[in-house]
Write a structure and sequence with these properties.
9 helices; alpha+beta; four-stranded antiparallel sheet; 8 strands
Length: 192
């Protein structure tokens, strides 16, 4: 089950066969159902997740409402990074929106891999850089784009998400209500 993972890692670094065997020994493969919480609100997590198959979202809860802040599909890492790094309780939930196949990497194993596989430091740094760029792009979009422009970006960059994520969750990801999203979709269809 790690073949897809190592195809992904080759975009960043070239692990040796020995490195791959060591990595394989610490990665745990899991198949989980839709609605499974990989990280539950107010719990401490020591796991990062590589999505081999499926769609996962990260959300916060404010005034009883779920606010989706990230939606990721295959060949992405996701985690509650503050909890993972500091050992504090998570302020977010990570939930599978579909049945998923994931690889799990525990913090203690990652810390050990940093010492045993020199390229692991570079790999994780590049993953974190990619994550930082993604978050910066989302923040910039929320600052500069209106909701319709944000929706059009998803339509252009990740159209498969529109088929995989319920409309009410997508609406909170865009920072709008489901009713507003329906209006935006209708306007875009009328333009086409």
């Amino acid at each position: 089950m790690t073949e897809q993972f190592f195809i992904f890692t080759e975009r960043f670094v070239n692990f040796t066969q020995a490195d791959k065997e060591l990595l394989t020994s610490v990665l745990t493969f899991k198949q989980v159902g839709a609605k499974t919480e990989l990280v539950t609100l107010y719990t401490v997590t020591d796991e990062l997740f590589f999505i081999s198959k499926g769609c996962v979202r990260k959300y916060y809860v404010k005034d009883g409402q779920q606010i989706t802040t990230n939606i990721l599909t295959e060949n992405n890492f996701i985690g509650a990074f503050t909890s993972f790094i500091t050992g504090s309780k998570s302020t977010e939930t990570i939930e599978c929106l579909e049945p998923c196949e994931i690889l799990v990497l525990r913090k203690r194993d990652l810390d050990r891999l940093y010492k045993q596989i020199p390229l692991m430091n570079e790999f994780i740094r590049k993953i974190l850089e990619q994550t930082l760029i993604h978050f910066q792009q989302v923040l910039t979009s929320f600052t500069l784009d209106n909701p319709e422009e944000r929706y059009e970006k998803i339509l252009f960059e990740s159209p498969q998400i529109l088929q995989r994520v319920p409309q009410h969750m997508l609406a909170t990801y865009l920072g709008i209500t489901a009713t507003s999203l329906s209006r935006i979709r209708k306007r875009i269809l009328e333009k086409a």
